[in-house]
Fold this protein.
Amino acid sequence: MIQGLKVKLGPQLYQYCTDAIDFVPNVLVEYKSENVLIVHGEKSWEKAKPYLKFLNEKDFSFSFYQYLGECSYADTENIRQKVLENDIDFIIGVGGGKLADLVGYAAHLANKPFGLIPTLASNCAPWTPLSVMYKENGESEGKSEHFLRQAAFLITDPALVMDAPVRYFIAGIVDTLAKWYESDAILSQENLQDETPLMLARYVTVFTKEKIMEQTFKAIDDMKHQRMSKEFYNMSEIVFAIAGLIGGLGDKYARNAAAHALHDGLGKYCPEIHEYLHGEIVGYGMLYQMALEDRYDQVDQLAHFYRQIHSPISLKEMGVEMSEEQIEKVVQFMDSKEKVHLIPVDTTPVALKSALIRLETYMNKHYLEED
């Protein structure tokens, strides 16, 4: 028995199908909500509007707030103030992952129920009750805010999700693949084999990895050509729903480990990397964790996969050349995170640093020089 294991399965209601968004008023009625705040972005908002027929409902009063582009403490406070000023009793977020994180954390602080309508499949943020925090300039805060409040709903339409940049979808697939790579060694430990939620999480990671390897290439091609196929539907659902379920079942043992820790450290200390998406950086983090575990066969498999879907494979490729001081800061940051030390290998600062330098040398020699 593990003390303190927290299983947070996911939204109270999940719907992903054509016209699913039309069901939103039913949820608002269930919560006896009348004054609703819609938090939205810019480009995604224009694409989402035709799907939001519930905004014409006369039984509700809607207020609107365009977020500032980051899940920041400052914008969280902006939303909280908006809730107070307008006597809001329900918050709906329409947009991508950072917006979903922002709305979840703001609802937690404001003590209000919330629902999410994701407009793209780039990560599991709409499912997961935690928020990755950034500063207003896009620099990572190097921390996440965890809360117990689950979304009242996650509802969206596959046609809306398809009408998004393909790059975000690819990054979402890579970020989802990390669920297996980050948790495999952790969940293989003998002392965890009798923990039912953890083993269920493990089974789902295996299922997810298999589906990604089977369907990714067709799903990406179908999205590029705007073909609504079972592969695109399955893969997009896996990205924002099933990936979130894994973390919900497995808690810290199946949510993230060294790959995400490196992502956060790079985001905090390497400004050049801000041009890259969460999943793209986590993808490099997966290579790093496999190097840390000395599983270079997996490094090669991942690198080959990344090349096929056009995801970056080295810091150099992402325009990041860290100084000795930056390396030390990133290593110290990773060492401070419990999730890194859940991996059953040497995770001392010396080992963390050695793996980072060794991996970058390996990738540049075996892949970039070949190009």
User: Anything to note?
Assistant: The beta strands are 14-16, 35-40, 61-66, 90-95, 114-118, 130-134, 140-146, 153-156. Residues 6 and 251 are 6 Å apart (CA to CA). The two ends are 50 Å apart (CA to CA). The chain has two domains: 14-162, 166-368.
